[in-house]
Amino acid sequence: MTENELADVTGFQTLLTQKLMDYKHQVLAILNNAQQSSHQLAASQLLKLSNNDFIEAVVRLEMPQISDKVRLIKRIDAALCQIEFGLYGVCSDCEEAIEPELLASDPTEQRCICCKTKFEKRKKGFIAL
């Protein structure tokens, strides 16, 4: 990995870590404002958990208000894991490099443009059935 590529990955890691914390705090704010005291109690304990445990815990709450944020947290966590294992920027389907402009527009992207297009076409095909 070149020095520029390493700097880019470090920049993405910083950005992703910040976004992860922002989304976690948004989830906690929703839980703190919830009517159920159990959700408020959960909020007080969640920040102490690892990302995986946090995700598992909030998924179990089954609150539609947080489902989009949980989906984003999962994507961010996956990207951070890829950075940790040295696989960030590698397409999950064809294992080729993901185009830098695609990662710049969405740092959580898991597929190159070609595979993303194929995936979206397949997904639309399943929905149309």
Strand-helix topology:
Blueprint: H1 3-32, H2 37-46, H3 51-61, H4 67-84, H5 100-105, H6 113-128
What does this structure look like?
There is one protein chain. This protein has 129 residues and is mainly alpha-helical. Helices cover 71% and strands 0% of the residues. The protein contains 6 helices and no strands. It has helices at 3-32, 37-46, 51-61, 67-84, 100-105, 113-128. The model has no long low-confidence stretch (mean pLDDT 89).
Given as residue ranges, the uncertain stretches (5+ residues, pLDDT < 50) are none
So what's the oligomer here?
Answer: single chain
The largest pleated sheet is described as: none
> What distance lies between the first and last C-alpha atoms, to the nearest angstrom?
44 Å
- Envelope shape: globular
Kindly report the average pLDDT value: 89
State the secondary-structure class. Answer: mainly alpha
Percent of residues in β-strands: under 5%
Observed structural traits:
globular; mainly alpha; 71% helix; 129 residues
Brief overview:
By secondary structure, this protein is an all-alpha fold. It has six helices and no strands. Helix 3 packs antiparallel against helix 4 (67-84).
